[in-house]
């Protein structure tokens, strides 16, 4: 456990020193959401209708941005060898990386979600559901993305391969996340959809680090 | 204690080395020499358990290390040709992660490599030799029986190489084994040499 926390602490500290990386993902998220009103034109009702799906898709794409460096940076500077020889189980290394990715990318995206929701003309009643849906969906993406990052480590053009592997697996997160926000926007309870999303997260949380750890090898 | 039995390594179809066997008792040192591409770094990675050998086995006290990789990892330190430093973290923070994983104290390890005055500087501003010394400081954190060093003195000035002498001697006096790949003279008296 102390090894997990040591590794997680280092991830967060590194992200705090490289603030531009986190900021880039957040700016990407807000800018993609800002493009929709221009594309849709002067139709606020239509914009509000596509808002849930657009919000989810933009957030997941933004969360993908730093994933190819998740293990890549450590592999290049030799840190990965040291981690693999550190005595920590590989699954624990992967779990720390996944949680680190969520804290340094997912949380800032959630914090920016009211801005994005406003740009997309999402009714204020649904903002709470949007925060909850994004929290669960980005956590799921961090877990799936860690598996993808471990699998594509060392592959040529891994940066292209990674979204191709991860995004299809993230489709359920988009479906249930958007459904939760839409339910809240039309005055219904978002709880059933959020619970389904939570079930997906509960499934991925123990399995994904094990899979990522098994894929993690020295080159 | 450490034994290599009939090790072979393939790169593509070509054998880099084959039929390599040696045994090292406690306190021994082995220098790996040979031309670039002779497989020195690869042999160190095989001894570390990071790469499986194409043939043969690495044994520790007679047991194949491949059977229990995590037990083998816990008994060795590997200083690769990369320094494994994060430029954005300070010198002390870089070492602190490994101190938390392995035990040991940061400041004495930095003092052993004469890095203590630089402890609060970001690793980004270090010279190549200072970065190398910080990588070597990981060796001093907590004692383990096997050190695998890949060109440990690259970029070091004469005073730093000299400072490495007593550190290596202490390790061997405790019964530790050193396997080092090098082109440069190392302060390792009575080391066996293996030319690849």
TrEMBL record, chain A:
Keyword terms, alphabetized: Cell inner membrane, Cell membrane, Cytochrome c-type biogenesis, Membrane, Transmembrane, Transmembrane helix, Transport
Location(s), subcellular: Cell inner membrane
Chief location of this protein within or outside the cell: membrane
GO BP term, pick one: cytochrome complex assembly
GO annotations of cellular component type: plasma membrane
An example Gene Ontology molecular-function term: heme transmembrane transporter activity
UniProt xrefs under Pfam families: CcmB
Ranges annotated as spanning the membrane: 20-40, 46-65, 99-120, 126-153, 160-181, 193-216
Membrane topology: Multi-pass membrane protein
Record-stated family: Belongs to the CcmB/CycW/HelB family.
Physiological role: Required for the export of heme to the periplasm for the biogenesis of c-type cytochromes.
The name this protein goes by in its record: Heme exporter protein B
């Amino acid at each position: 456990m102390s090894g997990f926390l040591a590794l997680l602490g280092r991830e967060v500290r590194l992200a705090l020193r490289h603030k531009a990386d986190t900021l880039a993902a957040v700016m990407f998220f807000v800018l993609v959401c800002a493009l929709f009103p221009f594309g849709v034109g002067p139709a606020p009702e239509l914009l509000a209708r596509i808002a849930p799906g657009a919000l989810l898709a933009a957030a997941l794409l933004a969360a993908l941005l730093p994933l190819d460096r998740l293990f890549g940076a450590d592999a290049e500077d030799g840190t990965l060898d040291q981690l693999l020889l550190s005595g920590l189980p590989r699954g624990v290394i992967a779990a720390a990386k996944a949680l680190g990715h969520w804290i340094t990318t997912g949380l800032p995206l959630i914090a920016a979600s009211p801005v994005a929701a406003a740009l997309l003309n999402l009714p204020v009643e649904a903002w709470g559901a949007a925060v909850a849906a994004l929290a669960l969906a980005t956590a799921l993406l961090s877990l799936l993305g860690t598996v993808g990052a471990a699998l594509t480590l060392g592959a040529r053009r891994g940066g292209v391969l990674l979204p191709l592997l991860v995004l299809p697996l993230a489709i359920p997160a988009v479906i249930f996340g958007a459904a939760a926000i839409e339910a809240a926007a039309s005055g219904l309870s978002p709880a059933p959809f959020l619970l389904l999303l939570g079930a997906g997260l509960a499934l991925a949380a123990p399995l994904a680090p094990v899979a990522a750890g098994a894929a993690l090898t020295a080159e | 204690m450490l034994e290599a039995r009939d090790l072979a390594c393939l790169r593509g179809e070509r054998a880099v080395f084959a039929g390599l066997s040696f045994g090292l008792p406690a306190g021994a040192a082995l220098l790996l020499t040979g031309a670039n591409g002779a497989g020195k770094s690869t042999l160190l990675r095989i001894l570390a358990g990071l790469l499986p050998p194409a043939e043969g086995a690495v044994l520790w006290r007679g047991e194949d290390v491949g059977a229990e990789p995590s037990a083998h990892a816990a008994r060795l330190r590997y200083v690769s040709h990369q320094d494994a430093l994060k430029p954005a973290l300070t010198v002390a923070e870089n070492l602190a992660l490994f101190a938390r994983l392995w035990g040991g104290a940061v400041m004495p390890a930095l003092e052993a490599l004469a890095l203590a005055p630089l402890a609060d500087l970001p690793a980004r501003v270090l010279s190549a030799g200072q970065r190398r010394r910080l990588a070597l400081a990981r060796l001093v954190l907590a004692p383990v029986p096997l050190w695998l060093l890949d060109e440990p003195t690259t970029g070091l000035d004469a005073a730093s190489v000299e400072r490495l002498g007593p550190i290596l001697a202490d390790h061997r006096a405790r019964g530790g084994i050193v396997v080092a790949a090098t082109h440069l003279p190392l302060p390792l008296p009575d080391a066996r040499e293996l030319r690849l």
